[in-house]
Design a protein that fits this description.
alpha/beta
């Protein structure tokens, strides 16, 4: 934990390098939010089918959903959101300048009792560390 899900419209101007972008996000969010870098699981999804507003002008979007367990204070969540937004605004500068773009960040708090997972070490026959 946390999971980062980045969705963006197919008309963004930048060529996305997920490893570089997520590397920056992981480093910044670990620093601000107290996450461990090795716990991030991130993916980027380009959306080629979308419709924004009334469709009369070129519009674009970038949305980061940060999914994590609850427990952080409102101030900590705000700091994480703002740090992520700063990284994204820098990464999508041309899109912000050349289209009507909205960049957003949301934190989704997962319900710990309903979250389930298994790990490789659980199936390796070796004791978990």
């Amino acid at each position: 934990m946390p999971h980062l899900v980045l969705e963006y419209s197919g008309n963004v101007r930048e060529r996305i390098d997920p490893a570089a972008l997520f590397g920056k996000l992981h480093t910044e969010l670990a620093s601000v939010g107290g996450f461990r870098i090795q716990d991030f699981k991130s993916r980027a999804v380009r959306m080629d089918q979308y419709f924004i507003g009334d469709g009369t002008r070129e519009q674009s979007f970038v949305n980061l959903d940060l999914r994590t367990f609850g427990g952080k204070s409102p101030e900590a969540r705000t700091a994480v959101s703002e740090a992520a937004l700063t990284v994204l605004a820098d990464a999508f500068g041309a899109t912000l300048r050349e289209t009507a773009c909205d960049i957003s960040v949301q934190i989704t708090e997962l319900d710990r009792p309903s979250f389930a997972r298994t790990r490789s070490e659980d199936h390796s026959g070796r004791p978990a560390a």
